[in-house]
Amino acid sequence: MKLDELVITKAIVEGYFKKLMNCLELDVAIVGGGPSGLVAALELAKAGKKVALYERKLSVGGGMWGGGMLFNEIVIQHEAKEILEGVGVNVRPYEVEGYYTADSVEAVSTLTSKAVKAGATIFNALSVEDVVVDDEERINGLVVNWTAVEMAGLHVDPLSIHCKYVIDATGHDTEVVRVVARKMPGRLFTATGNIEGEKFMSPDRAEKLTIVNTREVFPGLYVAGMAANATFGGPRMGPIFGGMLLSGAKAAREILSKI
Ligand code: 48H
Ligand code: FE2
Question: Where on this chain does NAD(+) bind (predicted)?
């Protein structure tokens, strides 16, 4: 066959346009495609909800690709084993009981593939820069722009989407919550009403607190993963990823109980 560059161009533009139009009104919008965001997307899509995930970078996976200090292995604890095994990741028991390891590239790629096949739409290279708030001051949408626009520092206005719930899964920087805290100071469901900030490394406490801290932080906005600890003042845990996976699953479960 003779290939035609205009057919190729039209196929791409039309395909993307359909995805975009189909995702203007969502059940759940997830910001950040690290381990917590990917698991949340997977679980919500499996439950039949309309879910899209927005990721600033070209690739999803966040901090999981590099394992610990670029050694591309992750550690997970017993409680999270089922999440990775459930999607078919090879999880290997370590010699100390309760600890498991997995290849980080296999974990990211498999979770991503399963989330997409379950029906989640992933928009990469898009950055979330703000939220939409309704008349009752409940978050009901996101404001998004191309990452390329953000990086170039261009003054280009963004576009918006609507959703019933937002999950901030943006990691250490807890970016969506940060916008809300800046625009509505003192209104978060934290002890001070503001972002408490991440604390020093303490894996055992951190992993447990990640789950406790996975909750609604402002009407319509949940936090998951590292963003949950940064928002509610939990410690960091280093390269153990069970808490991130379990947190994404909890955020999905809690939202599913409401919609
Ligand atoms: C679109 C955005 C935006 C934005 C950020 O950091 P992540 O991997 O997030 P988690 O919480 O799922 O996992 C945390 C884990 O990777 C980690 O760092 C751990 C366990 N650390 C322990 C320690 O002690 O350090 O992924 C967040 C993703 C990234 O891909 C960002 O690019 C993306 O969110 N992101 N996407 N719009 N405004 N902000
Ligand atoms: Fe980290």
Answer: 36, 55-56, 63, 128, 155-157, 226
* pLDDT cut 70: percent of the chain above it: 100
Residue 258 CA to ligand 2 center (angstroms) comes to 30
| All residues with CB under 5 Å from ion ligand 2 | 63
Between the CA of 2 and the centroid of ligand 1 the distance, in Å, is 43
- What's 220's domain CATH number? 3.50.50.60
Predicted pLDDT of residue 99: 98
Q: Could you tell me if residue 218 is inside a domain?
A: yes
Supply the range of the domain harboring residue 74. Answer: 26-257
ipTM of the complex, rounded to two decimals:
0.99
Output the CA angle 125-229-186, nearest 5 degrees. Answer: 95
Q: Is 73 among the domain residues?
A: yes
Does residue 76 fall inside a structural domain?
yes
pLDDT tens-digit series, residues 178-233: 999 999 999 999 999 999 999 999 999 999 999 999 999 999 999 999 999 999 99
- As a whole number, mean pLDDT of residues 90-105 equals 98
Give the pTM: 0.98
Asked if residue 76 lies in contact with residue 84, where contact means CB atoms within 8 angstroms, the answer is: yes
Domain count, the chain: 1
Alpha-carbon distance of 89 to 85, in angstroms, equals 5
Does residue 32's CB lie within 6 angstroms of at least one atom of ligand 1? yes
Q: Which ligand is nearest to the CA of 206?
A: 1
On whether residue 162 sits in a domain, the answer given is: yes
CA distances (Å), origin 191, targets 44, 139, 196, 215: 29, 20, 8, 14
